[in-house]
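Progress against Task 2.4 (sequence-to-structure conversion) is shown through the following example record, which the project officer requested during the mid-term review.
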Amino acid sequence: MDLLMIVLRLIHIFGGFLWFGIGFFYVRFLEPTVQATGPEGQRFIQKMGQVTPINNAIGIAAILTTLSGLLMYWRISGFQGSWITSSYGIGLTIGGLAGLAEFILGATVSGPTAARIAALGKELEAKGGPPSPEQLAHMQALQEKLHTNGVRGVLLLTIALIGMSIAQYL
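C-alpha cells generated for the chain above:
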C-alpha cells in the first residue's frame, strides 16, 4: 500500500472537484443570473466575495490540485519517455497539461482580474452614488475579461477531467 499516493490522489480528486465545480457553477449558472439581475446582481456578487472565501477556495484548490498532480505524475512516470508515450501516459499528460494551463491562466489572468474587480467595487461602494462612465466601462471590461477566461478555464479543466478519467482505459 502506497499511503503517499493515496493521500495525493485524495487531495487531487477533492481539490479538482472543488476547482472545477466552483468554476463550472460560476460560468454556467451564477454569472448569467448576476448579469440578468443588473445592479442587484452586481451587489450580490460583490457581497459574496466579501462574505465568503470563494476566491481563496478556488486558489487553494487549484494549488493543491496542481501540486498533488505534479507529484503523482513524477512518481508514476519518473518523466521517462517510454511511459509518457504509452496510452495511459498520453491520457494523463494531456489532462495534466490542460490542468497546468488553467492553473497558469488562473494565476496570471483570472485571479488578478477578480482582485481588480473587487477593488473597483469597494472604491465604488465607498464613493457612493452611481459610477462614472469611465468606471462603468472599466468594470464592464474587467468583467468581460474574467468571463472569457472563466469559460476558457472550464474548458481546460474539462479536458483535464476527461484525459485523467479515461487515461487508464486507452
